[in-house]
4-carboxymuconolactone decarboxylase (Pigmentiphaga litoralis), 125 residues
Amino acid sequence: MNEPLFEDGLKTRREVLGSEYVDNSLKNAGEFDMPMQELVTQYCWGDIWNRPGLDRRTRSLLNLAMLTALNRPHELKVHVRGALTNGVTKEEITEVFLQAAVYCGVPAGVDSFRTAKEVFKDMGV
């Protein structure tokens, strides 16, 4: 493991997703799945999320669209929260899901709206 890249990723991951969520993910990881937590933290958050080519807000918008396309509601919930943290508005999230529905299928769009509404309710947004 690249310790400096992991630490950079951990910082970014906490800033976007919240310390509580990230710390729980790490705390609940065992011998079996800790390598995945390390990979995600170092590679996704340390390397990719910290690249200079796109800002965090844009990366969040892309993640919402891709997670809709892949129909990954658990990860979508996490990234809806992160998108709001990164300054994405509810109106922009609506537009991402409408666009994704056209290209990925209406059921994927409907599920994404449903998932986001749960997050909005939980966050009081």
Remarks:
- The CA atoms of residues 68 and 108 lie 6 Å apart.
- Residues 106-123 form the longest helix (18 residues).
- DSSP finds seven helices and no strands in the chain.
- The helical segments are 3-17, 19-27, 34-48, 56-70, 73-85, 90-104, 106-123.
